[in-house]
Amino acid sequence: MARSDGKPIWLDCDPGHDDAIALLFALFAPQNCTGGSNFAAALDLLGVSVVAGNAPVAATYANAARLLTLYGAALPKHSRDFESDGVHLFCGSEVPLNKLPRSDPDIHGEDGLGGVTGLPSLGSEQVQKRVWASYDVPQQRHLLPRSSPGELLVFWHALLTHRIKKGLPKMTIVATGPLTNVALLMRGFPDLVEQGIEEVVIMGGAPPGTRGNRGPLAEFNILVDPEAADIVFNFDVPVVMAGLNVTHQAIFGRSHLERLQAHQCGDQALCDTLASVVTFFADTYKSEFGFTSGPPVHDVLAVAYVVAPELFNCPTTGAPPKRYQVQVETAAHSLAMGSTVIDFYAKTCQRPEEEWWGRGGRNAIVLEHLDVEKLWDMFFACLERCAQRRKQLGVSS
Ligand code: BDR
Ligand code: CA
């Protein structure tokens, strides 16, 4: 099939329980979030890349391939297929730019999707096709290609060059893991980023006043690769930050879980798998951080912002989120390593002008408010559309 006319996005992620749900949003968010299955796709997901984060990159790659298969995402016809609706998949960096790798088994289990049931296996024919679909190297005895950001960067170069030459709309990058791959793209091909990227929407960071979750002041994605985050925040392209201050509002509560377990969309297998995602995540968030009403499904916010930015307006004034200067602490031996320091009163901002998004300027839009019930309406609309897709493919229960 030809590509949809939704907003073109690329998802860079580290699945991860909340990344798994972000991927559902990226594939199936409808233009009208409460509109059910009859509405056209809001987004045109061009591809997915993974990075080391919640688990080592081989695991996050396997997880992404298994999730895309579960959701029934279309396969690209060949490694440089830019025309059909196929979703490309690449394995990115296995290490941060300048720090030792670290993952988060206490939250996501050893393989990144602990406790999740019902996913197709890595060795299955469908998943293996997807694992290799965007790689030119012949399929070998291994179940996964060698982890390397090189193939991803070469592909991004070809894709962005193609889109710029054809005058296609700029692509938005949504990043829900450490920012290593995105920083490598910015360092490798700055001209292509300037010409071909609309904005970078990240889940990451904890504004001053919000506790860190993996450092005293640091959120996990930024802490894992602060140098990469520093590059991304200071590149002259709009950045939108969904940090813990706002993602902790996105609690998937008991009533939502019960609605999921009621299988209203008619696809029992899909609902049960997603329920296992939420349940494991709820348990680890309870034991690790004391969240008792449900887990904060952080990563979906970054995708939801691209679909419906109005969900993040101030509920009292209706004003859109504000733009500030954000800087990242990169010093290895600092207690504040990985913190996102926000200049709320523009005291250090040297280049406040509207058109400058780079270093010294107001370089990021910082999300603060969320219409959480609309977010979960969007989730159930995505579920409905995914169930329809699986029915068409004949894979649903
Ligand atoms: C972030 O870290 C991971 O646990 C989640 O996937 C999310 O991207 C939250 O700090
Ligand atoms: Ca993530």
Automatic annotation (TrEMBL):
GO cellular component, one term: cytosol
Residue ranges of domain Inosine/uridine-preferring nucleoside hydrolase in the record: 9-377
The UniProt record lists the keyword Hydrolase: yes
Any single biological process term in GO: purine nucleoside catabolic process
InterPro entries registered for this protein in UniProt: I/U_nuclsd_hydro_CS, Inosine/uridine_hydrolase_dom, IUNH, Ribo_hydro-like
Molecular functions (GO terms): purine nucleosidase activity; uridine nucleosidase activity
Keyword annotations of the record: Glycosidase, Hydrolase
Family: Belongs to the IUNH family.
Protein name (Swiss-Prot/TrEMBL): Nucleoside hydrolase
Source organism phylogeny: Eukaryota, Fungi, Dikarya, Basidiomycota, Ustilaginomycotina
